[in-house]
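WARN no homologs supplied; continuing
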Amino acid sequence: MICSSDETYPEQVPPLIQALRNAGSDAVAVLAGYPKESVNALKNAGVQEFIHLRANAIDVLSRIQQRTGVAES
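OK structure emitted
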């Protein structure tokens, strides 16, 4: 889970995810918030899920469980 302010995500998230991947991590990248102007760029950088006030938490958690093999699709 990546948690900061929407303003800092475009600058901080891509290098963070790249560092995690370079270290061999296959963790699901979940961002707290939904910075509308940056969503596509953040997805391209590797963010897989966004959790925020309007998110359907059950759907998001179900997708995370599927990605991690905890639940079947």
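The longest strand covers residues 30-32.
OK
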